[in-house]
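The instructor's notes for this session suggest beginning with a concrete chain rather than abstract definitions. Hand out the sequence below and ask the class to guess, before any prediction is shown, which regions might be ordered.
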Amino acid sequence: MANTYTQLYFHIIFAVSGRNNLIAKNWKEELNKYISGIIANKNQKLIVIKGIPNHIRLLIGTKPDCNLSDLVRDIKVNSSKWINEKRFPKEKFAWQTGFGAFTVSQSCLNNVISHIKNQEGHYKQKIFKEEYVAFLKTCKIDFKTKYIFMED
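After discussion, reveal the predicted structure:
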């Protein structure tokens, strides 16, 4: 085959350290734009981003040479540095260690996009930890509860 063709989508979730509610409405859009720029500079495609006060969800399309761990590390390191330089929260801002990343098929993209865009509504019924554990179980991912939400 003369060319390489891929469809690689990831639903990525990472939380504020301690799951503190530090992402404020008045600068959330700026943060989304900043993260979007990081992803674009890494030659990947942001499909949707949405954050609530204690975590962020992304849906991205990646190229086959993308190292997902490096990409998420770069997003977290650069965005936390930017947030602290802007002095958005009064306290030092940091992302929690680790992240969740789940592959998404083309046929499920619209459902994932809708879920990410409407996540505030989900948390009226469930807290983040409950939803995240349910998500891991649905995806049949082996995990140890004591390691999921360790304090940094």
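Then share the key points. The chain has one domain: 8-143. The chain has a mean pLDDT of 88.
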